Amino acid sequence: MPSGIKRASTIAIAATTVANLASAQDLSATYSLYGTPGLLEMPTAQTAPESELIATFSYVDTLPRTSLTFQVTKRLSGTFRFTAAEVFNELTGVGTFRDYNRGFDLQYRFNNETDYLPAFAIGLRDVLTPGRFQSEYLVASKSVGDNVIVTAGLGWGALGTRDGFDNPLGGDFATRPAFDPADPEGQLATDQWFKGDAALFGGLEYQINDTWGVKAEYSSNNYPQGPGNIAVDVDSPLNYGLTYRGDGGYQLGLSYMYGNQIGVSGSFALNANDRAGGSGLDPAPPPVKPRSPDLLAAQSWDRKALPERAVRSALSGLLKLEGVTLRELEMTDTSARIRYSNNRYRAEAQAAGRIARMMTQIMPAPIEVFILEPVRRGIPISAITIRRTDIEQFENRVGGTDALFEQSTFGDAGGPDGLTPVDRDTNPFAWGLGPYFRFNPFGGNGTVNVDTGLSLQGRYQIQPNLVAYGAIEQSIVPPDDDSTGIDPTPDIQNVRSDASSYGNDGVPVLSRLTLARYGRPGTDLYSRITVGYLERFFGGVSAELLWKPVDSRLGLGIEINEVAQRDTDMKFGFDEYDYQVTTGHVSAYYDIGNGYHTQVDLGRYLAGDWGGTLSVDREFDNGWVIGAYVSQTDMDYADFGDGSYNKGISVSIPTDFFTGTPSRGSYRNSFRTRTGDGGARLSVDGRLYDVVRGGHKADLADGWGRFWR
C-alpha cells in the first residue's frame, strides 16, 4: 500500500475509533482558507449557524482567495469564491501567469452528530466552473470531549490527486475526463462528478480555549506539477494552523502549508438572524385606547363638538411623531380611511400598528372601521381594513397578533373620491451629504476593488408622485483602473467593461439626475416613467408597467428603456461612445413565502444581447436580504466568456441592523463572477415591484409580528 494511503487510512481509522468513544459536543465551526467550515484546505462536516454570512480573505503564495459563504439552511451552505492562482505557462512550460478563477461550492450535511455517530456531509467544489479546483467529497466529523474535532473524508477531482486509488464506485465512475483549460467555463460538468481516482484526507482541530485553537490536516490535494497546472510546490501533505477567534464574529488564522509556505487568513461573520444594534431602540408605541360600553352604543358622532378639521390636525401631529406623514383622510359616521407615507419603519406592518393605535386615541367612538392605505412614491399601494373592536380585544391577548391578521382584510386602495388632503408643512426639498461605499472583492484584475467617497444628494417633490432627484459624487479612494487599453471584444459595445474609466479624473461627477413619475392607471396596475441620467453609465427614458394584485403572490411586469451611453467624464455628454440602444424585459415575480422571493426577467440587455435572468432572494425578519442570480444570453462565448452566462450573489443590510433605531435605509451590494458586457441590465432606481410589494398581503404577513411593536 502506498505510504500516502497508509497515512490517510491511519487518520480515518483513528477518527472513527475515537469518535465512537466520544459524546456529541457543540463545538462551533472555524473556517478554512477556502472560506468554508473546515481545517486548512480540507473540508469538515461542520456547518455554520443558519443564516450566517462569512467573508474570508486568505493568502498563500500563488493562491490568494476571497470567499463569501452563506449558510442557507441548517444543513445547506453555498460559497462564492475568487482565486487569483498562479499557473504554469502552458506554452513554454516555465514561468507562471495569473488565472482568475471564479467558483461556487455547495455542501449538504446529512445528519446531526450524536453520541456515537459523526456528522456526515457531501460537497461539490466549483460546481458551476469545472476546472483546476473542481472536486467532490464525502466527509465525516466527530467531536471528542469538549475541545477536539476529528475529521476523515474521501475526495475526488482535485481532492483525489494525492495517492489516489481506484474509484470505489466503479463502472462508469472509474475514469474522469481530463481538465482542458480551453473548455468553456460556466457549465454543469456532471460528467465529472465523483469520477476518477479517489483519495483519503483527514485531520483534527483542538480548541485550546474560547479564543485560540490549533489545526492539523493530511491533504489529498497534491497540486500536480506541469504546464497548465497550479504553480504550487508541495513538499508535504501535512498542513498546520493556528486560529484566533475574537469577539464580534471574526477569525484570524496563521498556517504552515505544503511543508514550505506560510499562509494567513481572516474571516468575518454576520448572522442575518441577529441584530448588531440589539433588540432595537424603537420608541415605545402608544397604548390602545379602548372605548367604554356607552360610547360603543353611539351610531354617529357630533361633528360640531368634534370637527373633522380638528381630528385631521390632531392625527397628523401624532403621526408625525411616529415618522409618518398623513396625506389624506376620509371620515364617515362609522369608518375612517387614511392615506399616509411611512418614512421610518422598515416593515409596513409595524407602521400600520402604530397608526392604528394612534387612531384609537383620536377617532370618535362610533368609528369602528379603520382603512389604512400606505403610499409609496406618491401612489397608494394597498388598503388594510381593520375593525377597531379587534384592535381593542387582541392587543394583549396571547395569539392576538395572528388573530388580528385573520380578521383583517387586504385589497387594492380605493379611489380619490371622499378623501380630504391634509395641510402639510413639510418642505418639498430635501438634501443630504454622506459617504458612499462600493466594494467588489472579486475584481477582474485579481484585487479587492474599493471605491469610496462623498455623495451629495438632493430630492425635490414637485407633486406627491412626481419627484426630481440628483446625486453628485466625489471619489476619495477611487477604484483601481484595470483597463489595458486593448479592447478584447471589439464587436461588442463596452457597456460595463469600461467601468474603471468612468469618473476617474479626480473631480466631482454627476452620478444621477432624474425626473420620475409614478401612477395607478387601473386596478392592480402601477406605472413608472423615469427620464434623465439614469445611472453612472447610461441616460435616457425608462418606462415600466406592473400588474400586482394585493392579495396575490404573483406579479407581472414589463419595462422598456431607450438609453444612450454617457461620456466617461460623467458630465452631461453622450458623444464619446455615440451608442444608443433599446433595452427592456418582461418580468414575473413570485413570493414563495417565509421571506423567499423569485424573479424571472426575459428580454434585451444593454449590449444588445437577448436572454434571461433568474433571481432568488431570501428576506429575513430583521430586514436582511440575501440573494443569488444567474443570467444567460445569446452572446457568443468568445465575447461573453464563462459559458455565456453570469452568476452572483447580492446582500442588502438594513441600517437599523447596526443602529437599532428605526430606519428605511439599507446598504446593498452585488458580487458577480464577472463584470463584462454580456447580460448587463440597466440600473434604474425605483422599480415598481420593490416599491409596492412591502404593502401587499404576502409581505405584510411576513412582517405582521411587528404590528404591536
UniProtKB/TrEMBL annotation:
<dbReference type="Pfam" id="PF06082">
    <property type="entry name" value="YjbH"/>
</dbReference>
<protein>
    <submittedName>
        <fullName>Exopolysaccharide biosynthesis protein YbjH</fullName>
    </submittedName>
</protein>
<dbReference type="InterPro" id="IPR010344">
    <property type="entry name" value="YbjH"/>
</dbReference>
<feature type="signal peptide">
    <location>
        <begin position="1"/>
        <end position="24"/>
    </location>
</feature>
<keyword id="KW-0732">Signal</keyword>
